[in-house]
Specification:
The chain has 5 helices and 23 strands. By secondary structure, the chain is α+β, with helices and mostly antiparallel strands. The protein has a 7-stranded antiparallel β-sheet, with no helix packed on it. A 6-stranded antiparallel barrel has the order 4-13-16-15-14-17. It has a 4-stranded antiparallel β-sheet with strand order 5-12-10-7, with no helix packed on it. The longest helix has 57 residues.
């Protein structure tokens, strides 16, 4: 019993000693004084603003095409005797170059036949005119004879009144006068008929001359030549091939009809029409074109020509067409063809007193962060006008010399303390 009491007493003494030691440690521990919290300063990139007047270019992409493709067809039926050297698939043919020659035999014989008929008609006209001249001379002689007969008839009547001429003499003189007048009338009818014959022959001669001119043209058309300088596709012609006007020998793409179709977004169109001094599309102005072929770039120019007739609601854009300068195409070391994909730089709006910024500086809500004199962030509202190639143009509550933050991140906000290495 005594031993159990002693064990309990020892345990209590040990527990009390432990509690005492713990309280001693707590009472004598070192106390760390808290330091006041310091404000964090954020490193940012910035640019200084400078108002400017500019006319940026609008980048778009387009396709080269032909505004006027020509189907090469013969105007005659016949057999091809010869094909031009440059008349090949994909080849470039110059205006006036030979496309094909058709067999000329039938056309030459047709020209000879119509020329002979024209000469025959001319000879008939000359013959009729000679006959007409003779008849008119005979009429003149008959008129003189008729006048003599009339005088004889009048003398016979005068003698009859004096009783020195018989009735038989009067009747003979009257009959002779009527005969002469009848002969004169017949000759006049012949003259009128010959005049009509000459008119008919002249009409026939004119018809045959027209037919002869057509025959000469058909003879010339046996040499089929290129109506324009351009590129050939769908070539289907060869020596010995029988062709007619319904056969298409090739399709010609004239280089003076080459153009680019590209699209302008409604947003960019709104900037051009709604801001700046021009407020109209730059129709008639030169645009720059870049054609990338493999690792090479070829540059040439075009002239903005017209706007497509309707908007594309699906892409919210409108199509534009630019005529390619033929001289630019001929200077290219590589052959530009319809279907080529090109980049287009079109003159944009005339922007006055605007500020240019990196696109990263502009927030989705059209706000920017400006560093004030205390190196703290201020939020400014601006109006976005135009953007291209990572740069934007804005207007708003800004002035020259303002420092705009170009590196935005989630922790950055109005009032934040920042530091920028940019002056």
């Amino acid at each position: 019993m005594l031993r159990a009491v002693l064990k309990g007493l020892v345990a209590i003494i040990i527990l009390a000693a432990g509690i005492g030691v713990f309280k001693l440690f707590v009472a004598t521990k070192a106390v760390t004084e808290p330091k006041p919290a310091s404000e964090r300063s954020w490193n940012v990139a910035s640019v200084r603003l400078q108002a400017t007047d500019t006319r940026p270019s609008i980048l778009s992409f387009g396709i080269v095409q032909s505004s006027n493709m020509i189907d090469i067809r013969p105007s005659l039926s016949g057999r091809i005797d010869e094909v031009g050297k440059t008349f090949v698939e994909g080849g470039m043919i110059q205006q006036g170059d030979l496309i094909a020659k058709l067999d000329r035999f039938d056309m030459e014989k047709n020209v000879e036949d119509l020329a002979a008929k024209a000469k025959e008609t001319d000879a008939q006209i000359a013959e009729t005119r000679a006959e007409l001249k003779g008849e008119r001379n005979q009429i003149a002689a008959l008129e003189e004879e008729t006048e003599l007969v009339r005088r004889d008839y009048e003398r016979t009547l005068a003698l009859s009144k004096r009783g020195t001429s018989s009735t038989a003499n009067i009747e003979r003189a009257e009959i002779e006068l009527k005969r002469m007048r009848r002969s004169l009338l017949q000759k006049q009818q012949i003259v009128e008929r010959l005049d009509a014959s000459i008119d008919r022959l002249l009409a026939i001669s004119e018809q045959r001359k027209v037919a002869l001119d057509r025959a000469y043209r058909d003879l010339e058309d046996t040499n089929l030549t290129s109506p324009s300088t351009g590129f050939l596709t769908d070539v289907r012609a060869g020596k010995g091939l029988e062709v007619d006007p319904n056969d298409r020998l090739a399709t010609l793409h004239p280089i003076n009809k080459m153009e680019i179709r590209f699209e302008l977004s409604e947003a960019d169109l709104g900037v051009i029409l709604g801001y700046g001094s021009r407020r109209e599309l730059p129709i008639g102005e030169i645009i720059q074109v870049l054609w990338r072929v493999g690792g090479q770039e070829f540059k040439f120019t075009a002239i903005l020509d017209r706007v497509e007739g309707s908007f594309d609601a699906a892409s919210a854009s409108v199509g534009l067409y630019a005529k390619i300068d033929p001289a630019s195409i001929e200077r290219l070391p590589a052959p530009l063809r319809p279907g080529a994909f090109v980049e287009v730089l079109m003159p944009g709006p005339d922007l006055k007193n605007v500020f240019e910024l990196p696109q990263a500086a502009l927030g989705m809500d059209e706000t920017i962060f400006v560093i004030n004199d205390d190196n703290r962030v201020e939020e400014r509202n601006v109006s976005y006008l135009f953007g291209q190639a990572g740069r934007v143009f804005v207007i708003g509550d800004l002035k020259n010399g303002d420092r705009v933050i170009t590196s935005r991140f989630p922790e950055l906000g109005p009032g934040a303390l920042v530091r920028s290495p940019n002056p």
